């Protein structure tokens, strides 16, 4: 950045114009981009736009460490939850090591959001009524995509996993299809057969499994009984569902009531499956505890053990008893987390006693993750509400208004001071401040959509404070120029000679400012971060403006008669600056004054 | 301008100069006194921590409330069972602070308050904070402060030298102590906004210091090759030379902050704007003071301990004594002040205009 500016007066002439043109083009391009993108105002933070900001702090619980992976998972899940409310601007982000901040802009049901974000019980066990691979290429592009039973048809995995299952729910997860379901043509046809059957008989009955009494010997045709309108609608929804589409996925499980059947998507081994699910049989809250254990006796490897509450245990016994007798895939239950099927193990027999295992060829982390989901509903960690902040838009607007008025007045005072003190030179300062302001505004506007930058109140303060920092650079440069004039130089050489020194000072001190901003940005949380970001941004822009605007403009103006001749109002009048008359127009005075001047110029 | 400009010119030439370095002991004393006061204030009065640090809730009513502060306070005390603090904001809205309640209670209190104040609960803005939230911001701030200090010392030690890094660090700690001390003494409330303001001082206080150091470094580059000035004298000249700039930048930095503080704050009475700008205002002023009166004299002090600088000072003094002796011999008017006082006049001499008469007397000084 500094290199091209090195030129002394000899090489200067062609450069100032180029630099000015460059920065003007940059401004026009950025502003054009801003208008093109339609984001003509900076995104306002929660405090200015209004809304709710919830801060959650992770608590270290048994077996769940507060680490980045867990925090990221939690953010991911919470994000799904708040955006499930239909809020596109909701933000969920980690702050520091163990905080999650959820910002929900005005206009949403903040109470509902608040409940959803931190709670850990949006988990249901639902019986699977039908399922099939989903996506445009439904017709079995590969055995893996079509093999249906919610399991991975990984040829290498051990079938013994499920075979060893005694009294347990045999896992889907990574489990190799047991017995009947193998990654073979038969599995494929079975999957399709289910689909066909469902298409043929319009409605699988949700009531059957819900009551637990009806149709113990259910067959695919059995549910055809009560085909109400709603179920036909659901059936149509199921048929239309394409789980490879994110929008479909997001809507699939949305607003699913626990007591009603629903459709949902689930991803198994990278392939999407769609499910038609019955009413929730067991609630996630009824899982007392779940943990990943390594089965040292059998060959089952990693398993997930679940303990149910007494109520849950009874329900689970009912549902498993019911499911065990059914054919594929209706002997499965889907573990549905926030509307998405995370696992669909099948059941071999009724499981009583409140304890169950899901086995399969899990990797340790997979088992761990499933266990976490079961224990905490969704979140790998439990969270405690630290603060819930409701800011009305009126208050935020008031503050913003006051901040802007104050900023304008502060700016006006600065301008007045600059005009009084620097006279003509203040034109340069004001033009530079203006360029700086435009750049800041445009970049902030663009950063909104780009990196979700939101201008909160501390950031507004940061921007106002930055006026002073930006003006500092000009003052450093102007004082240098004036010093050079005092040494007896004429303006043009003075402008050029002053620059390298002013440049170094500006860079060194801006670096310190930037360092402070960067450290604050990395280390701190919440409001402080926004403030630090703004400070860092404006410090960088300050450097850009001084290098590409102020200096070239100064070079150009130094050629004008008004400034070069040191007009009384130019701010560069050698006489009022107290230049030494005998030294005027003398480059290297060899007179008596040479000695004393030296230390300064050395 | 002309008047100020002339002062600038005279400062530049060294015609007028305040002996910052020479009188450093006075300023050290002043600073130590302020620092002790600040520490005592901190120890005795402690900081008035905002509810962000204590836990509690802030309710803000919409504008145009027809309820008096006392009335609102009564409502709030009744609703919460805690002592509430009610402030009237600039736009006639009320800010009701209740410390020591948790999120569970707040919703009930909000409903009750809204009923008492005859408000739609939706319009009553609530700001609930757990006690550890502010604590965490503060902890992070300390962490940031520590990291920043280490990094900046390393940077300054590389860009300049370790003595300057040390002096800058001392000045920084000095600024932070003074700012927090004022908070303790005056009893301003400490909020996360205050912490933000305090942290900003970091960069700004050093910005000023670095500008003076930069000039100092430049002027002392070939110091040992001459025998005219001691390090302290050059340091003093650096301060004086950059004084106009320091004053200007400080004024220009303070103006917008003052705008935020007095005008922005006046609009609303209290809030984030005030918190940030108040600590910034105090900190910026302290930062400007410390960069001139503390940091640079401290560098000079440290520098003068170097053997090279010690011998330089000896040479300079010897030379001056010799010059004085020569002048005495030549029968020219003695320049009495020059050798005794190593401060301002010595710096002033060479830069001086013949009009002052001293230049003529020091013809021998031209020899290098």
TrEMBL record, chain A:
Lineage top rank: taxon: Bacteria
InterPro entries listed in its UniProt record: SecD, SecD/SecF_arch_bac, SecD/SecF_CS, SecD_1st, SecD_SecF_C, SecD_SecF_C_bact, SecDF_P1_head
Function text: Part of the Sec protein translocase complex. Interacts with the SecYEG preprotein conducting channel. SecDF uses the proton motive force (PMF) to complete protein translocation after the ATP-dependent function of SecA.
Complexes and interactors: Forms a complex with SecF. Part of the essential Sec protein translocation apparatus which comprises SecA, SecYEG and auxiliary proteins SecDF. Other proteins may also be involved.
Region feature (Disordered): 130-230, 571-602
SUPFAM superfamilies according to UniProt: Multidrug efflux transporter AcrB transmembrane domain
Membrane topology: Multi-pass membrane protein
Organism: Streptomyces rubradiris
Limits of the Protein translocase subunit SecDF P1 domain: 71-128
Cell division recorded as keyword: no
Keywords on record: Cell membrane, Membrane, Protein transport, Translocation, Transmembrane, Transmembrane helix, Transport
HAMAP family, per database record: SecD_B
Positions of the Protein export membrane protein SecD/SecF C-terminal domain: 382-559
Name by which UniProt lists this protein: Protein translocase subunit SecD
Gene3D superfamilies documented for this protein: 3.30.1360.200, 3.30.70.3220, Multidrug efflux transporter AcrB transmembrane domain (1.20.1640.10)
Cell compartments where the protein resides: Cell membrane
Pfam family, any one: SecD_SecF_C
Coiled-coil annotated residue ranges, if any: none
Family: Belongs to the SecD/SecF family. SecD subfamily.
UniProt feature, compositional bias: Low complexity: 133-189, 200-230
Segments traversing the membrane: 400-420, 427-451, 457-478, 506-525, 531-550
SecDF P1 head subdomain domain location: 275-380
Automatic annotation (TrEMBL), chain B:
Membrane topology designation: Multi-pass membrane protein
Xref: HAMAP family: SecF_B (MF_01464_B)
Keyword Isomerase: no
Biased segments, Basic residues type: 357-368
Function: Part of the Sec protein translocase complex. Interacts with the SecYEG preprotein conducting channel. SecDF uses the proton motive force (PMF) to complete protein translocation after the ATP-dependent function of SecA.
Main location: membrane
Keywords, in A-Z order: Cell membrane, Membrane, Protein transport, Translocation, Transmembrane, Transmembrane helix, Transport
Provenance organism: Streptomyces rubradiris (Streptomyces achromogenes subsp. rubradiris)
Family: Belongs to the SecD/SecF family. SecF subfamily.
Gene: secF
This protein's name: Protein-export membrane protein SecF
Domain Protein export membrane protein SecD/SecF C-terminal: 112-304
Top-rank lineage group of the source organism: Bacteria
Record has Transmembrane helix as a keyword: yes
Disordered: annotated span: 330-368
């Amino acid at each position: 950045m500094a290199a091209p500016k090195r030129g002394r007066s000899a090489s200067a002439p062609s450069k100032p114009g180029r630099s000015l043109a460059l920065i003007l083009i940059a401004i026009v391009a950025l502003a054009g981009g801003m208008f093109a993108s339609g984001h003509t105002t900076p995104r306002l933070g929660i405090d200015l736009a209004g809304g709710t900001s919830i801060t959650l702090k992770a608590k270290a619980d048994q077996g769940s460490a507060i680490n980045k992976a867990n925090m990221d998972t939690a953010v991911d899940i919470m994000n799904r939850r708040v955006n499930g409310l239909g809020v596109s601007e909701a933000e969920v982000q980690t702050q520091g090591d163990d905080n999650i901040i959820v910002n929900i802009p005005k206009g949403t049901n903040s109470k509902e959001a608040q409940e959803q974000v931190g709670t850990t019980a949006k988990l249901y066990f639902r019986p699977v009524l039908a399922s099939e691979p989903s996506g445009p290429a439904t017709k079995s592009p590969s055995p893996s995509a079509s093999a249906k039973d919610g399991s991975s048809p990984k040829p290498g995995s051990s079938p013994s996993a499920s075979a060893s299952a005694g009294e347990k729910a045999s896992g889907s997860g990574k489990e190799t299809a047991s017995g009947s379901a193998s990654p073979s043509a038969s599995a494929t046809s079975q999957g399709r057969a289910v689909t066909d059957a469902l298409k043929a008989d319009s409605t699988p009955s949700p009531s059957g499994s819900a009551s637990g009494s009806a149709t113990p010997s259910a067959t695919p045709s059995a549910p055809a009984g009560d085909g109400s309108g709603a179920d036909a609608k659901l059936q149509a929804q199921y048929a239309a569902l394409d789980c490879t589409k994110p929008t479909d996925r997001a809507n699939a499980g949305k607003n699913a009531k626990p007591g009603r059947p629903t459709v949902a998507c689930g991803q198994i081994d990278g392939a999407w499956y769609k499910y038609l699910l019955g009413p929730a049989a067991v609630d996630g809250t009824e899982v007392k505890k779940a943990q990943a254990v390594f089965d040292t006796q059998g060959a089952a490897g990693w398993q997930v053990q679940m303990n149910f509450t007494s109520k849950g245990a009874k329900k689970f016994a009912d549902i498993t008893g019911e499911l065990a007798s059914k054919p594929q895939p209706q002997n499965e239950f889907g573990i549905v987390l926030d509307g998405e099927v995370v696992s669909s193990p099948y059941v071999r027999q009724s499981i009583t006693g409140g304890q169950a295992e899901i086995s399969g060829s899990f990797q340790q982390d997979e088992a761990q993750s499933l266990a976490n989901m079961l224990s905490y509903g969704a979140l790998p960690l439990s969270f405690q509400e630290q603060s819930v902040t409701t800011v009305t838009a009126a208050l935020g607007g008031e503050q913003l208004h006051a901040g802007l008025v104050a900023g304008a007045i502060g700016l006006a005072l600065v301008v007045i001071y600059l005009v009084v003190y620097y006279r003509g030179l203040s034109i340069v300062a004001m033009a530079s401040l203006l360029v700086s302001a435009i750049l800041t505004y445009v970049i902030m506007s663009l950063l909104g959509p780009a990196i979700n930058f939101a201008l909160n109140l501390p950031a507004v303060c940061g921007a106002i404070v930055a006026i002073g920092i930006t003006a500092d650079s000009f003052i450093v440069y102007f004082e240098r120029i004036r010093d050079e004039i005092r040494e007896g130089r004429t303006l043009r050489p003075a402008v050029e000679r002053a620059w390298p020194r002013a440049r170094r000072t500006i860079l060194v001190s801006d670096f310190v400012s930037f360092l402070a901003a960067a450290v604050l940005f990395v280390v701190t949380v919440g409001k402080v971060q926004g403030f630090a970001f703004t400070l860092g941004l404006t410090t960088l822009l300050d450097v850009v403006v001084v290098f590409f605007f102020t200096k070239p403009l100064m070079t150009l103006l130094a050629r004008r008669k008004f400034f070069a001749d040191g007009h009384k109002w130019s701010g560069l009048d050698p006489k009022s600056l107290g230049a030494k008359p005998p030294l005027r127009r003398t480059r290297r005075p060899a007179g008596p004054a040479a000695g004393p001047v030296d230390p300064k110029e050395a | 301008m002309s008047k100020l400009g002339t002062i600038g010119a005279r400062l530049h030439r060294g015609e007028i100069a305040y002996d910052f370095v020479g009188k450093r002991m006075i300023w050290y004393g002043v600073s130590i006194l302020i620092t002790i006061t600040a520490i005592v204030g901190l120890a005795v009065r402690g900081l008035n921590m905002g509810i962000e640090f204590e836990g509690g809730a802030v309710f803000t009513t919409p504008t145009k409330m027809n309820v008096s502060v006392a009335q609102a306070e009564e409502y709030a005390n009744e609703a919460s069972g805690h002592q509430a603090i009610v402030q009237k904001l600039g736009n006639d809205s009320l800010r009701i602070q209740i410390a020591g309640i948790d999120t569970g209670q707040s919703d009930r209190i909000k409903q009750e308050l809204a009923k008492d104040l005859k408000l739609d609960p939706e319009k009553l803005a609530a700001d609930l904070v757990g006690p550890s939230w502010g604590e965490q911001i503060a902890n992070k701030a300390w962490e940031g402060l520590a990291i920043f200090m280490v990094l900046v010392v390393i940077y300054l030690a590389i860009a300049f030298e370790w003595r300057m890094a040390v002096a800058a660090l001392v000045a920084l700690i000095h600024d932070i102590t003074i700012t927090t001390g004022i908070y303790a003494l005056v009893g301003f409330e400490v909020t996360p906004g205050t912490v933000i303001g305090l942290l900003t001082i970091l960069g700004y206080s050093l910005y000023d210091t670095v500008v003076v150091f930069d000039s100092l470094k430049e002027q002392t580059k070939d110091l040992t090759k001459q025998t005219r000035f001691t390090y302290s004298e050059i340091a003093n000249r650096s301060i004086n030379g950059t004084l106009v700039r320091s004053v200007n930048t400080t004024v220009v930095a303070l103006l917008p902050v003052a705008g935020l503080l007095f005008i922005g704050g006046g609009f609303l009475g209290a809030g984030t704007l005030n918190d940030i700008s108040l600590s910034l205002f105090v900190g910026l002023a302290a930062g400007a003071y410390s960069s001139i009166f503390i940091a640079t004299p401290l560098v000079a002090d440290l520098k003068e301990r170097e053997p090279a600088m010690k011998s330089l000072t000896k040479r300079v003094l010897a030379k001056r004594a010799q010059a004085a002796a020569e002048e005495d011999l030549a029968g020219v008017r003695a320049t009495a002040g020059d050798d005794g006082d190593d401060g301002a006049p010595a710096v002033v001499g060479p830069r001086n205009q013949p009009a002052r008469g001293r230049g003529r007397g020091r013809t021998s000084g031209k020899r290098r």
